[in-house]
Predict the 3D structure of the following.
Amino acid sequence: MTTMRTRFAPSPTGVLHLGNARTALFNWLLARRHGGVFVLRIEDTDRERSTPENIQIILDALQWLGLDFDEGPFFQSERMAQYHAAADRLIAEGHAYRCRCTPVELEAKRQQAIAEKRKSLYDRTCREKNYGPEQPHVVRLKMPPDGSTVLDDLIKGRVEVNNAEMDDWIILRSDGSPVYNFCVVIDDTDMRITHVVRGEDHLTNTHKQLHVYRALGLEPPRFGHLPLILGKDRAKMSKRDGATDLLDYQELGYLPQAMRNFLARLGWSHGDQELFTDDELIKAFTLETVSASNAIFDQDKLNWTNASKIREAEPRDLVEPLLPFLRERGYAAEDGERLLEIIAILRDRSTTLVDMADRARMFYCAPEKYDEKAVKKHWKGEARAVLERFVAWLKTQDPLRQEDIMPFIEGLAQQMSLQLGQIAQPIRIALTGSSASPPIEATIALIGRDEVIARVEKALRELPLPQDPADVTTPK
Ligand code: GLU
């Protein structure tokens, strides 16, 4: 059996669009599933856009997404000799010809077609002239004037195009540069690609490309055209629907494994399963289960997928992706046991790494302000006495052990005839500025004894509290 060989062939435009990232993922999954080869080819014939920086963006994006390639990157710009050799062969064998029609002549014909409400197709003036290379020319492929071209697409099924819709298109421009539809066939042939999986926007290109295979006497690969990714309003996905550049998701705190899972589910399904490990994706992925209809980008689902992947991750595996977000916020965060514990308690409640970093603030910084509503609700009654007794106790605990904290709080509640919340909430406000935090004993232990004492003393100084609890009604 021949080895499956798939490829990803991006043009370096400065971003890796979500749709292209999904194309890369599907090709990677296919190759991995079938023990095949995944090839990376950079389509860099547009010299202006194909800067080293733009090429690097693609490599970085693929690396972040975790899609490793087995061969390449190959560069079209380094393969000009192969394209010219193929064009020469097509001319010699009568499948292509030199055309000397000038741009001015062609424009006049185009205007006439528009005036006559006809589709503007090249009228084949030079097709049988057998011009040599002496004068300025382009090279055109001889297309069959009638009949139809049938593509048996692995996703779309049978797609037939009338040959009368296609003209003798240019394969080499007047400056000798080859066009995409020509290069891609020579490349896919030389790279022995067996399956070309790409966006549905390439469907019309494929029909043209099939004629290059035919003219060269080659068996074409199998093709699969992926449906588009649309926004919620069913128009082409735009920035209003969500970020369209893959690497923006890295900055927004999404995990690559969540992006792989989410992108895989854009247009592909496996029963009603939503969450997949990479191994499960690789085992389950087939083109037969890719939907032929368009996929809808759903930000809520992406957030849910990301939150699930964060929850499932080992804290150790979140350290490296999380640290830049912590440092960017100015926290003195270090890799170590303490960070692992912080991640472990925030893991269940964070949607993104940005969210996790924001929530981690309390472990690195004293509150700058106190939430007014929380203060109004909990900063009253016995709160001062509670906090003073808490600090006095903490001063006797050196080192402070996490397992001693709850017994102390429970004991205090009993002695003062208070509910647990009447103890925990003022402590939370003093430590975090709000009445929401992970479990109180873990929060206290992670902030650390000395810092807890400092924060409580600061809150007692800064927040006015009734001196005499008898003056106010005790909260429920
Ligand atoms: N370079 C083309 C693009 O970025 C893809 C070509 C292909 O997959 O055949 O859209």
Q: What stands out?
A: The first helix runs from residue 18 to 33. The first strand starts at residue 5 and ends at 8.
